[in-house]
């Protein structure tokens, strides 16, 4: 496999450094996988619980490689017309009426199915761009199975076939990132074409650094207490384990309330920020003797 | 050296992939080639990068990671032999190979656990396992010339890191914090976690050393943990059950999503002549735009009849939890538990109820036992038919969960046949392997004549069965 362009990153350490400069603190797993996705020219499938920074990763990669981010947000019922391209029917009609009778049928037909009447959607846009591009296909698990089939052509050959115009091949491969909350199993065919990254909660040290960089006003001791407490909460069997986003929110809440220690009262007052289910709060309070 | 593969690095990689396959991680040739490309792209001196890179190339699901990590440690060990650690194991006496000074060792361990220094802990684990195998502790006599034997059990019994908990917590506790408060509890759990991690380090280290002396294939066969979905219900131990419970929610969500897709596809019904003709008025009588009847999705009822006796405990816990998660999908789910007789336990399965507590309440609050507490299928079906037969309507599906071991009592096939006739579908999920059906006191084959019975030994099998059974 020969990449179409020279790789953007020199080494794994280089990835870590440049992502950090873009405000994303990457673990070894993240940095290595991003490096490989860039080197091997393969799409990156990122899976993991909500709020661990899957979308942020794509944004950070875009920023660190000075690429433009093209985002396809998937939802139930998304189709070709929303993901790939669409013909601008209104404009085509207008064109036909404008030249009524003056042109032959053949010329009109060739004309209305040309570049001018094509509305490119994210996938086609990403393929056609000549500048560095990061293609983010967000929450692919929300889309229907048919869309995966559509992605197969785009992601394995980096080309799109428009029946009226022919096949458009990428001049420059976009760096593709797919994210999934694994609400459903993706098809094997799609998974096989991607490098797989399971993005889990970061380890204590990394999480401390993330919180410190996002909420720099927090004191070191409080950050430490926050991270340790959240990690213990994750160890309980909860319906929704708190993620990094919740840790950061918690830090901001404590800051806003002017609390500088995480004592029992502070936890009791603000537990709702990290645990979003009533039953989780009850359980955590009971197990951690918060009464 | 026995560890070197005959075909160099590519051969070694292929061996590694083969080991993954035997543990249920489906790695195709394409992935193997990716993995090989990864080897060329990465700096092989960084072992953690190599680990993550290979994982990205060969894994496709997060549940496979544990198997991968264990096998990676076996096939790409961090060190050969004892390694060259910084940590010295204290000895009794001055000699370099004297007996291990257990008390001094525990002091070192306590200090490291207190500081949470993972790297040094790993070194300590390595040194301890090595020292114990070579010289034994004070209580054991030396056997010169014997093969070193690596034992996690011996090392952990000697160190008993759990007993250090109170000491470390005391050392770390802030003087202002009163014992028994929230912060105290958080600290306690954190230390407990560290200790558990240290135990894992010892186990990993022993596995690595054993692989060096006994061959890694043999160790890989026996010592690699199974993926949660492939653990058999009936032989799962507590830790595996906890992990299974965590897989319940994603599983139920996945099933629910697939059901929704099927419902949506089945939404369009047959042609609606009346509306099609009416629409054709506007196009001069040409039916340009046919109208279809909307199919009413039948919201089916589910009646679950579940054996909760001790012999199928792992299975019934798990299945009932899945049923609870599926409640959102069904307009009506009624759950009945039985041992010797049946009783309704639906009210215990409120949405959001504390999952692990539900089972205890089922056993405590429902009246399931009449006589000796051994399961009696015939009697249970009888009591179910007597009191709750109105729960079964032509719209309901009956799901029976159990191993069909009747303790040689009357299987009461007549009642089961009548119940099956009342319901729209009836299915039986049996956690025993098919070859054991009908052996001993199992009436599985006789029941299988009356209702379709499915083998359902693992979470993966359960998901398949439930998915194919659930009516749209």
From TrEMBL, chain A:
MF term (GO), any: ATP binding
Residue ranges annotated for the AAA+ ATPase domain, each copy included: 40-205
Superkingdom field: Bacteria
InterPro entries with a match to the protein in the record: AAA+_ATPase (IPR003593), ATPase_dyneun-rel_AAA (IPR011704), CbbQ/NirQ/NorQ/GpvN (IPR050764), P-loop_NTPase (IPR027417)
SMART domains, alphabetized: AAA
Cross-referenced SUPFAM superfamilies: P-loop containing nucleoside triphosphate hydrolases (SSF52540)
Name by which UniProt lists this protein: AAA+ ATPase domain-containing protein
Species assigned in the record: Pseudonocardia sulfidoxydans NBRC 16205
UniProtKB/TrEMBL annotation, chain B:
Highest taxon of source: Bacteria
InterPro entries per the UniProt record, alphabetical: UCP010256 (IPR011195), Uncharacterised_CoxE (IPR008912)
Pfam families registered for this protein in UniProt: VWA_CoxE
Record PANTHER family: BLL5662 PROTEIN-RELATED, BLR6139 PROTEIN
Name under which the protein is recorded: VWA domain-containing protein
Biological source species: Pseudonocardia sulfidoxydans NBRC 16205
């Amino acid at each position: 496999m020969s990449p179409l362009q020279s790789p953007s990153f020199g080494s794994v350490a280089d990835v870590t450094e440049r992502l950090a400069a873009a405000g994303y603190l990457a673990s070894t797993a993240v940095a290595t996988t991003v490096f490989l996705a860039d080197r091997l020219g393969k799409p990156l499938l990122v899976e993991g619980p909500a709020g661990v920074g899957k979308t942020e990763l794509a944004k950070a990669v875009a920023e660190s490689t000075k690429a433009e981010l093209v985002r396809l947000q998937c939802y139930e019922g998304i189709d070709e017309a929303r993901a790939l391209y669409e013909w601008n029917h209104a404009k085509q009609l207008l064109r036909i009426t404008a030249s009524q009778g003056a042109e032959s049928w053949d010329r009109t037909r060739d004309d209305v199915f040309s570049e001018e009447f094509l509305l490119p959607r994210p996938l086609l846009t990403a393929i056609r761009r000549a500048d560095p591009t990061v293609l983010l296909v967000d929450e692919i698990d929300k889309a229907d199975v048919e869309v995966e089939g559509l992605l197969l052509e785009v992601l394995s050959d980096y080309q799109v076939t428009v029946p009226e115009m022919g096949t458009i091949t990428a001049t420059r491969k976009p760096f593709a990132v797919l994210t999934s909350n694994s609400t459903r199993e993706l098809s094997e065919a799609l998974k096989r074409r991607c490098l797989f990254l399971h993005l889990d909660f970061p380890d204590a040290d990394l999480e401390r650094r993330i919180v410190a960089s996002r909420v720099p006003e927090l004191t070191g001791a409080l950050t430490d207490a926050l991270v340790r407490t959240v990690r213990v909460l994750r160890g309980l069997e909860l319906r929704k384990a708190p993620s990094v986003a919740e840790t950061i929110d918690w830090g901001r809440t404590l800051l806003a309330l002017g609390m500088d220690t995480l004592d029992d009262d502070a936890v009791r007052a603000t537990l709702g920020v990290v645990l979003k289910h009533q039953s989780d709060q009850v359980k955590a309070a009971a197990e951690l003797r918060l009464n | 050296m026995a560890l070197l593969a005959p075909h160099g690095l590519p051969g070694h990689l292929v061996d590694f992939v083969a080991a993954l396959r035997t543990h249920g991680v489906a790695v195709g040739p394409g992935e193997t080639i990716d993995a090989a490309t990864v080897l060329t792209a990465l700096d092989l001196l960084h072992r953690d990068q190599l680990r993550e890179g290979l994982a990205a190339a060969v894994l496709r699901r997060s549940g496979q990671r544990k198997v991968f990590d264990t096998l990676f440690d076996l096939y790409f060990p961090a060190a050969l032999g004892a390694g060259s650690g910084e940590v010295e194991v204290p000895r009794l006496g001055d000699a370099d190979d004297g007996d291990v000074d257990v008390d001094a060792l525990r002091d070192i361990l306590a200090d490291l656990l207190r500081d949470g220094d993972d790297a040094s802990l790993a070194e300590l684990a390595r040194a301890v396992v090595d020292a114990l195998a070579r010289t034994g502790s004070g209580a054991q006599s030396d056997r010169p010339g014997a093969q070193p034997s690596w034992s996690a059990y011996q090392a952990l019994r000697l160190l008993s890191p759990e007993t250090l908990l109170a000491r470390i917590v005391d050392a770390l506790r802030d003087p202002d914090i009163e014992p028994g408060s929230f912060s105290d509890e958080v600290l306690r759990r954190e230390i407990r976690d560290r200790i558990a991690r240290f135990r894992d380090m010892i186990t990993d280290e022993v596995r690595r050393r054993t692989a060096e002396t006994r061959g890694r294939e043999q160790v890989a066969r026996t010592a690699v943990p199974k993926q949660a979905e492939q653990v058999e219900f009936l032989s799962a131990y507590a830790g595996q059950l906890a992990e299974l419970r965590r897989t319940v929610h994603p599983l139920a969500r996945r099933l629910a999503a697939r059901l929704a897709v099927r419902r949506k596809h089945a939404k369009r019904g047959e042609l609606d002549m009346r509306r099609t003709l009416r629409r054709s008025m506007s196009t001069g009588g040409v039916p340009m735009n046919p109208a279809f009847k909307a199919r009413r999705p039948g919201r089916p009822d589910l009646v679950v009849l579940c054996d909760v006796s001790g012999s199928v405990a792992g299975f019934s816990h798990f299945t009932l939890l899945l049923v609870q998660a599926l409640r959102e999908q069904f307009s009506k789910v009624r759950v009945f538990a039985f041992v010797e007789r049946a009783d309704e336990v639906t009210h215990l399965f409120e949405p959001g109820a504390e999952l692990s507590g539900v089972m205890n309440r089922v056993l405590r609050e429902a009246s399931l036992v009449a006589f000796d507490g051994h399961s009696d299928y015939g009697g249970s079906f009888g009591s179910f038919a007597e009191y709750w037969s109105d729960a079964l309507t032509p719209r309901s599906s009956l799901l029976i969960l159990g191993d069909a071991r009747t303790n040689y009592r009357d299987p009461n096939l007549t009642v089961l046949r009548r119940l099956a006739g009342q319901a729209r579908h009836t299915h039986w999920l049996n956690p025993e392997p098919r070859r054991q059906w009908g052996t001993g006191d199992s009436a599985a084959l006789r029941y299988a004549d009356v209702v379709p019975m499915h083998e359902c030994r693992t979470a993966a099998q359960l998901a398949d069965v439930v998915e194919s059974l659930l009516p749209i």
